[in-house]
Amino acid sequence: MDTSTLQIILKILHYIFFAYAFFAITSYIVLSVISGKETLEYLKKNSFVNYKDILSSTMSPSITIIAPAYNESLNVVENVRSLLSNHYVNYKVIIINDGSTDDSLEKLIATYDLEAIDFIINNKIKTKPLRTGVFKSKNPAFEKLMVVDKENGGKADALNMGLNISKTKYVACIDVDCLLLEDALQKMIKPFLEVTNAKVIAAGGVIRIANSCIIRGGKLIDVNLPKNLLVQAQILEYLRAFLLGRMAWSRLNGLLVISGAFGILDKETAIAVGGYDTETVGEDMEIIVRMRRYMEEKGEKYRVSYIPDPLCWTEAPDTYKIFISQRNRWTRGTIETLNKHRKIGFNRNYGTFGLLSYPYWLIFERLAPLIEAVGLVYFIILVALREVKWEYALSFLILAYMFSVLFSIVAIYSEELTFHQYKKKGTGFKLILLSALEPFILHPFILYAAVKGNYDYYFNRKKKWGSMVRKGLTTT
Description:
This protein has 476 residues and is α/β, with parallel strands linked by helices.
């Protein structure tokens, strides 16, 4: 390759990277503005809502909480207690013990006075069979609880078992290691009650990080900022994603994912599309995309809603090994879903879903780490060829860094103005200082995990779920 050809290629790459960065930053700004406006409208509207009417009314829609559990001995008793303390009338709790090899089931039996019962399961969705059976409590205080012990089939299979067993109109799918706040169900059910011109097929809420928080009796007592820098950085990441992103996509009716940690589905639609896909590691995203596709192809009006209230708290990885494993899985799940439903992309027959949501996820979520990795290689080549214009390069890097820091500060400010969960003196200042460090202590590992996730998806046939070792939430 002669010098002139190389110069042309480098120049083309230069413009591609510049254009990509420009449109990415622009999209983040637009989404954050829409999210801010939508969140303020939500808070204003809901300041007049009497949630006691929803939680106390026997006419409230029935909901079943489905919580898969696999080797969750550390948290399972405390978190089941939190699920049973929800301030809602018409709800049940089904714990799916998915072939645990620890003492999770024994702890549940002992704590909640469970006994095996005869139960006929309507197998609308194929799942792994029962192991020891179905359990109910002999104690009337726990009449809402059911525990199902089945052979291990993975989270998606466990959720499908819950769909088969539940008899309610709506199902709330939650990770059993999560802490659900007492008013979560009455707030999450509101979109299903309010929207009259379309069918709400799913709703999701904000997920917050519970590491170092104090939990007592299944309730969140005190919110603390963890000392672990990796966990702190994830708090910032979650604030940006949930406060400055998903509210906007809800307004545009363009949400492609409801967090697997906590979300409510219309059970009829979920079963109609065949339940959760057991062949993907990103079952939470895939079922939402499939449900949306199903409604689009039926030609029915529908919505996927989002609630900005911090309703669910979960334990985040506190080591880089576990963090990278988690993000590797998220990357593979995204690739699987977008590839499986590629017919939707840039297809006007799917409206906003095909022309806006799918392209955005493909370009700015799916391809972002690959483009960034190629950009780093491109920069190294320029350095080797002594073709770097250092004034421009440094200006670009400083701009990218300052935008990242500013975006985090906006997220922190939005949290302070709205839900203000981190109330202790000095916490806001610590988060602002952290925003300057976060691009160095978190982003490089997200990039590595995403690139490795791409490699594992295409070249590593042993596609593992990825470990998430729990240390247990702080209880007293």
